[in-house]
Design goal:
This protein has about 200 residues and is mainly alpha-helical. The chain has helices spanning about 1-15, 20-30, 30-35, 40-65, 70-85, 105-130, 140-155, 165-180, 195-200. Helix 5 packs antiparallel against helix 8 (about 165-180) and helix 6 (about 105-130) packs across helix 7 (about 140-155).
């Protein structure tokens, strides 16, 4: 787990092309030969952290399904938990913004898992349309848009900033939920930093 966390932090900070196995080994305080005990290449390392990212996505989905609720409630619950997973201080998640950095067979395997997750989210959108909690829409386009917003939080969120990880997840979830609701709230929270106070009240 420590190896994946160190790799994820390096990839998120420097990008795939800007990170070497030497950088990862140095961040972990180990030698490069020691790192090869865990992985054979930087490609394999990126595959493992991308796989872990998608595992976190599915874990968020399963948790939301267990909570129950309408299609929209389960969808937003999934996305909120996923935001917290990818932005936690001990995260091993990498949302790669670089195109086609993984080679075969790694790329096909990741695409397959990713497509399964997106299909499950589309199912939730369709269920939400059926139960009336989501306005009629194109589920595929909606899921692409939602994931674009969620994944981008990893690019701008910083620990120790004005908003906590939890506050960001709730605030972004509120924005996304409003866009799908047939009866949207007349307003959004003016300051995510006040979310804990407002929820407590």
């Amino acid at each position: 787990m420590a190896v994946l966390r160190g790799a994820a932090q390096a990839f998120n900070k420097y990008g795939f092309h800007g990170t070497s196995l030497d950088d990862i080994a140095e961040s972990l305080g180990v030698t490069k030969p020691a790192l090869y005990h865990y992985v054979k290449s930087k490609q394999e390392m990126l595959f493992l952290v991308r796989e872990a990212t998608l595992a976190a996505a599915f874990a968020s989905l399963e948790l939301a399904e267990a909570r129950g609720g309408s299609g929209r409630e389960r969808l937003i619950s999934t996305l909120r938990d996923y935001i917290q997973s990818i932005n936690s201080e001990d995260s091993i998640c990498v949302i790669s913004m670089e195109e086609r950095v993984l080679r075969e067979p790694f790329e096909s395997r990741i695409i397959g898992i990713r497509d399964d997750f997106e299909a499950r989210l589309r199912d939730l959108v369709e269920q939400g349309i059926e139960d009336g909690s989501i306005v009629p829409c194109c589920p595929k386009l909606v899921v692409f848009s939602l994931l674009g917003s969620v994944n981008w939080t990893q690019r701008w969120f910083r620990h120790g900033g004005a908003w906590s990880n939890e506050q960001v997840s709730v605030a972004v979830g509120e924005v996304l939920e409003r866009s799908l609701s047939p009866d949207p709230s007349p307003r959004l929270l003016a300051d995510p930093a006040k979310i804990e106070i407002e929820v407590a009240n």
